[in-house]
Design brief:
- With 432 residues, this protein is an alpha/beta fold.
- The chain folds into two domains: 203 residues, P-loop containing nucleotide triphosphate hydrolases (Rossmann fold, 3-Layer(aba) Sandwich), CATH 3.40.50; 187 residues, Rossmann fold.
- The chain is 34% helix and 16% strand.
- It has 14 helices and 15 strands.
- It has an eight-stranded mixed beta sheet with strand order 10-11-9-12-13-8-14-15.
- α3 crosses α4.
């Protein structure tokens, strides 16, 4: 469907065209008319399929009718700083020909400049729950006129323990409002959240829940934990990978792996919640400009990183939450482009990866690399295992052997911000 058939004003169509888009993605084509009609929406779509534009475009259309008032009318909640920054940039890109002012607020930076911007007047606020709570407690944000609430990546907010903060924030908003809930995955907790905060929502799904993008070639390589770093360095070098996003489970593990890869001659940096916002922004910018070859990240980077043409994602450690796998590998294969997602699976992670296979419901071929044959026993009790990366550098490695006979799966369907307490059934944990 063409954008010019969705009921958007000329200024928005002009901005969309300047971004190089003429045809709406499925989630945009389905969601935009429903949002413009004033309905509450509960939408699910695969990562990288344009969810942000699906809610920012109709929001800007709505705000454009009263542009220039500088009265806070729309609130967008996101789980991470990076996602808040991405949404803010999308709003600026699409609203460049409209007189609409937006502000992003999140932790990890001084609150004072944010207070100054809010005092000047703003139409749209993009916020992480923790920092918004700080502003509410200081009395520096006025939520009395909010008529549109958007929960972006709501499942991740619940997973990070933000449910109590979300409850308090929503209680502070006018009851008469439009509420939009967007996410790449749905769960029982998300459905319960929607029932509590949305009124007769229109449910929009463009793919099976928790499915992965077809353009992503997924595969797993079984290898002992102690040999993972060596194998990763060999793969990057031998296959001449120039831009690789690597995921670990812990901040310490990300720092350690980035340092080890630097020692292997691969320009690397780590990004996680203990890094200052300036350091995170610098690392991401250098990665996008190919000044850094490997960016090692915790799951804070699985939401909100929008990198054009990112070709390779590697799960150095398998996530404890299967849904996080969908978001990790969704950093590649965006906007229909091809990408490769490789998971390095040790014996203790066998159970975690089997849970992922069940979730995504697509065949993920498994390989063994000559010289890196696994010796560790398989275990389903992976969550209690102390995962240690590294291992001494050694020669060898080279030829692949397929353990499943399936080859590459190109055809498969394929902060410091802290939650205020724990959500029901959710663990409160930091944005790693």
């Amino acid at each position: 469907m063409q954008f010019d058939s969705l009921g958007l004003r000329a200024e928005l169509l002009r901005a969309v065209g300047e971004q190089g888009y003429t045809e709406a993605t499925p989630v945009q084509a389905k969601a935009i008319p429903v949002v413009l009609a004033g309905n509450d929406v509960m939408a699910s779509a695969q990562t990288g399929t344009g969810k942000t534009a699906a809610f920012t475009l109709p929001l800007l259309e709505k705000l454009g009718k009263q542009a220039g008032e500088r009265k806070l009318r729309a609130l967008i909640l996101t789980p991470t700083r990076e996602l808040a920054a991405q949404v803010h940039q999308n709003l600026r890109d699409y609203g460049r020909h409209l007189n609409i002012r937006s502000v992003e607020i999140y932790g990890g930076v001084s609150i004072n400049p944010q207070m100054t911007k809010l005092k000047r007047g703003v139409d749209v606020l993009i916020a992480t729950p923790g920092r918004l709570m700080d502003h509410m407690e200081r009395g520096t944000v006025d939520l009395r006129h909010i008529d549109t609430l958007i929960l972006d990546e709501a499942d991740r907010m619940l997973d990070m323990g933000f449910r109590p903060a979300i409850d308090r924030i929503v209680r502070s908003l006018p009851k008469q409002r439009q509420t939009l809930l967007f996410s790449a995955t749905f769960s029982k907790e998300i459905t319960a959240l929607a029932h509590q905060f949305l009124k007769n929502p229109v449910r929009i799904e463009t793919a099976a829940p928790n499915s992965t993008v077809e353009a992503i070639a997924q595969k797993a390589i079984t290898v002992d934990q102690a040999k993972k770093r060596e194998l990763l360095s060999w793969m990057i070098g031998s296959e001449n990978w120039q831009q690789v996003l690597v995921f670990t489970r812990t901040k310490h593990g990300a720092n350690r792996l980035a340092k080890q890869l630097e020692g292997d001659g691969l320009a690397s940096a780590a990004i996680h919640g203990n890094k200052s916002q300036g350091a995170r922004t610098k690392a991401l910018t250098e990665f996008k400009k190919n000044k850094i070859r490997v960016l090692v990240a915790t799951d804070v980077a699985a939401r909100g990183l929008d990198i054009d043409h990112l070709p390779h994602v590697v799960n150095f450690e398998i996530p404890n939450v299967p849904e996080d796998y969908v978001h990790r590998i969704g950093r590649t294969g965006r906007a229909g482009r091809e990408g490769v997602a490789v998971s390095l699976v040790c014996g203790a992670e066998h159970g975690l990866f089997e849970d992922i296979r069940k979730l995504v419901k697509v065949p993920i071929p498994t390989e063994v690399i000559d010289g890196y044959e696994p010796t560790e026993p398989l275990s389903r009790d992976a969550g209690k295992t102390n995962q240690r990366g590294g291992g001494q550098k050694r020669g060898g490695g080279g030829q692949r052997r397929s353990a499943s006979g399936n080859g590459n799966n190109r055809g498969g369907r394929s902060s410091n911000e802290r939650g205020r307490g724990r959500g029901r059934g959710q663990s409160s944990r930091r944005a790693a």
